[in-house]
Amino acid sequence: MDNFTVGVVVFPGSNCDRDVSWALEGCLDIRTKYLWHESSDLSDVDAIVLPGGFSYGDYLRCGAIARFSPLINALDEFVKSGKRVLGICNGFQILTESGFLPGALIANKNLNFICDDVELDIVSSKGGWFNNVDEKQTIKLPIAHGEGRYHCDSDTLKKLLDNELIALRYKNNPNGSSFDIAGITNEKGNVLGLMPHPERACDETIGGTDGLHTLKSLILK
Amino acid sequence: MDQFAVKVFVRLRPSVLDPAGEATKSASIKLGAEGIKSLRIGKMIEVKIEGNGENEVREKIDLLCDRLFANTVIEDYEYSLEKL
Predict the structure, then answer these.
(1) CATH code for the domain of B61
(2) What are the residues of chain A with a beta carbon less than 8 Å away from any beta carbon of chain B?
(3) Dist. CA A164–CA A188, nearest whole Å
(4) Subcellular location, in the record's words (chain B) (predicted)?
């Protein structure tokens, strides 16, 4: 872990990049490096976080413009090599827009921007992103989004279910997501996208530590 | 080179709930408009583009629609094209 470095991607409009870096460095003693979106050199990072925010002002659709950045173009090789990528909130939206994860994230059913703590069921342990030794474990994480309603067609949902790709489900669906989905992984398990913010739940003084394990698991091989 | 004016319409697929459309429908009814059965909100994108003939321009617009203007997981698109 000494030299392990997590790249935290910064797009114009990212606003959780510093939170992620603070949580990794301050709470977990994991080294981070900011990666400007125009960089395509990922050679000196071992894992990548796409943080929350409003990349490119959410113009056209959330994540739609970010998808064409040099960094996202370089991400394909990074993911294929088995290295871990975590997309939080806007990062999840970017991962679906760019095809790393299936489905799409669209306006909340009630049109509200929802900023709240939510209870989540850990559904799958694929990729080791969650510390769910129990069959059904619940964690509490903050959400803050206007476009967090996960949508996919029935064939995709079946594929998600059959391959145990659904990582997290809302206990009380706040945004109208299909099948209460809050987070999914790719088939290999090295890419996780989720709407809740684990980096905002890494210290008891700010309300909880249920996000620690997910950030810590970035260093898993 | 020919120049074309293209109007691209991007709509949420019929199977996708449109809460903004529903809210606008509700406001329309409060305004006193009667008989509204459905109201859905989409986007219209205007593009002026050059190319060697209509077929080449259509190829370019198809690519733009499929890869950028619309997310085909949730949206459908169509466009009209006028030679300037």
Answers:
(1) 3.30.1280.10
(2) 60-61, 64, 68, 96-97, 102-104, 106-111, 151-153, 176
(3) 11
(4) Cytoplasm
